[in-house]
Amino acid sequence: MHFQLTEDQRALQAGMRELLAGRFGRDTLRAAVDAPGTLDRGLWRKLGEAGFFALRLPEDEGGVGLGLPEAVLLFEEAGRALLPGPLIATHLAAGVVKGAADGSVIVTQPDGALVEWYEAADALLPPADTAEGGFADGALTPVRSVDPLTPLHRLPEPAPAADPLVGLLTAAEQLGSAARTTEMAVQYAREREQFGAAIGSFQAVKHLCAQMLARTELARSAVYAAAVTCEAADIAGAKLLADEAAVRCARDCLQVHGGMGFTWEADVHLHLKRAWVRKERWVSEGALTELLAELLVEVG
Amino acid sequence: MDLTYTEEEEEFRARLREWLGQVLPTLPPKPDPNDWPGRRAYDMGWQRRLYDAGYAGLHWPVDAGGQGATPTQHLIFLEETEKAGAPYVGANFVGLLHAGPTIAAEGTPGQRARWLPPILRGDEVWCQGFSEPDAGSDLAALRTKAARDGDEYVITGSKIWTSHAEVADWCELLVRTDPDAPKHRGISWLAMPMDAPGVTIRPLRTLAGSTEFAEMFLDEVRVPVANRVGAENDGWRVTMVTLSFERGTAFVGEVVACRRTLTALADAARKNGRWDDPVLRRKLGLLSAEFAALWRLTQWNVSESEATGGVPGTGGSVFKLRYSHARQELYDTAAEVLGAGSLDVDHEWVLDRLSSLSYTIAAGTSQIQQNIIAERILGLPKGR
Q1: Inter-chain CB proximity B303 and A236 less than 8 Å
Q2: Residue B71 domain-assigned (yes or no)
Q3: For residue range A186-220, what is the model confidence (pLDDT) as tens digits?
Q4: Crossing angle of the two packed helices B71-83 and B278-307, in degrees rounded to 10
Q5: Which residues form the Acyl-CoA dehydrogenase/oxidase N-terminal domain (chain B) (predicted)?
Q6: Closest Cβ–Cβ partner in A224, A234, A291 for B285
Q7: Contact A227 B1 (CB under 8 A)
Q8: pLDDT single digits (tens) A102-123
Q9: What percent of chain B has pLDDT over 90?
């Protein structure tokens, strides 16, 4: 047993972080916020070149031939950077929808009562057991999305339950966001002074930060393990813990930032709002906890 | 990232399972919890069986008499012994997990030869004399004084929270040897024989009704200078070596046991109708996710320590913070399943609920644990 990142996995993670730092830094993020509803197709193709979408396709089908643990690491980075777009649907569409693998075609997928990025997407990935095809004109109702970087449409009928991989990869994005807001809170707590001292020297602030780290690291173990085992219970638990980590850490990060955290200018709200969007994906919290309770009985 | 065990590790597990299958039926009946000599004999008997089978000091270095097993093998050992219902480490806890490893790391060859083999064989019991009435979380504020008199220290003071004091042969004792030095720099680590004149033990009754701990009063107790491990006034550093052992794999068996308890809770709730309450079901579901993740975090930490050569990583503090809270949640939920039955202290879960209250306090309160995480892992400035 070696439940740690391999050297190759570390390199993959570092490469993705570098790519996103170069192509989707803070200025680009804020520019995206100011131009809602549009996706950077150049960046999308760049992601395609880097193997983000074709990562799990076999090499003889033009893919990278890696597995879910590697995919989870890349989606974690995407979550850290608040990278917008229907990343998971396009990743899952690689090899299914032509052009998805290289990032030239943007694919989205209905999930529950909603579909993300419907107008910007080129194609629709139907959930496994529904007929292929789009929606009739006027069938979808635009939603004024709480997250400025996730346009939403409401479906006439809720879509059938999505692929568990949507849950796992969403959990990976949540993990990345939780890790990032923890860092942001710690950095701010080191710099911001009140009462003549860095606020990070006050225990009340320290304990918020410590709980953020604990939540994030527990979620990390769950998400990575689920990527390795791919078992239903592990994915359900990973989604629950990662949702909690992302939402709670963003809330605590906001709290540590004080009044600044309540401004549009600070990035904290972008993490919180995206975490809320991701929490609604796949299966509800209630249904996931019920599922895990049922599994307890079956095991026993 | 790999969660499959190697062939070698699976062989280790298979051999261990086979041995456990043979040895567990030969154990004597478990002693009454209040029968301390009986508990000592039972725990030492188990340790002797481990020794004879080559499992004693599994994670100790070979040159200290241990097996030099990898952290993963140690994890497998703790998991399998718990699953098989084998006895806990019990009275051997301090010797195997604190005092022994400290002597192995910091002791002279003579000290290692004197103290380590009896720990491994289950011949001698150790207890821990660290905390004092006025030195709990702030352990370095300890005041028990050791004055040098020729080749002996003369020790006066009091200790508290000493487990197994009534049946211990030795005490790993922290004393102040330089009252004028800064508080971390004037401490020494001594091995004190428990039968030395001047040692008085008073059992301390906990809220669970049992006497798991004791207070220890030291009145001019004479201990040879030769019993000091490490240099004089270097005891704080020596102790930190010990404490890092405590946060490594100390709770592996308990996490396995908690997950089994969770299944038993679901079963009990099904039988008594409490299962119809969706709030309770969801609590159980969430706890299942939490304990599954704690198990994965344990595997993560063990793999990390394997990669870094046995040094427990920072994940130990995170684990302790979340586990101690989760354990309390687990037994509060057990009380919900039991309903009025949760008032009957004869029920195992009720006793466990009471003892779970110590988890957010012992071995570093959750508040201190959060300070450690914030300062040492996150790098936030020291302060109040």
Answers
A1: no
A2: yes
A3: 999 999 999 999 999 999 999 999 999 999 999 99
A4: 150
A5: 6-123
A6: A291
A7: yes
A8: 999 999 999 999 999 999 999 9
A9: 83
Q: Tell me if A2 is assigned to some domain.
A: no
Spatial separation of the C-alpha atoms in residues A254 and A217, rounded to whole Å: 19
Question: Which residues in chain B are contacts of A12 at CB distance < 8 A?
Answer: none
Average pLDDT over residues A168-186: 98
Boundaries of domain holding B55: 7-88
- The answer to whether the predicted template modeling score (pTM) of the entire model surpasses 0.90 is yes
Q: Pick the last residue of a domain from A127, A154, A181.
A: A154
ipTM for the whole complex: 0.96
Q: Looking at the complex, report in whole angstroms how far the Cα of residue A243 sits from the nearest Cα belonging to chain B.
A: 12
Boundary-marking domain end, from B88, B110, B138: B88
What's the CATH number where B195 sits?
2.40.110.10
Q: Which of A180, A285, A168, A182 is nearest to A225 (CA)?
A: A168
Angle at A53 between CA A47 and CA A59, to 5 degrees: 115
The residues of B annotated as belonging to the active site are 246
Chain A: closest CA distance from residue B83 (Å)? 14
Name the percent of chain A in helix, strand, coil, to the closest 5. 60, 5, 35
User: What domain range includes position A109?
Assistant: 7-154
The count of domains in chain A is 2
Res. A128: pLDDT tops 90: no
Contact B266 A6 (CB under 8 A): no
B257 CA to chain A: closest CA distance, Å? 13
B261/B227 same-domain check: no
Residue A51 shares a structural domain with residue A174: no
CA-based nearest residue in chain B for residue A298: B263
Cβ-Cβ contacts under 8 Å, B302 against chain A = 1, 3
B99-116 per-position pLDDT tens digit: 999 999 999 999 999 999
| Set of chain A residues whose Cβ sits within 8 Å of the Cβ of B5 | 1
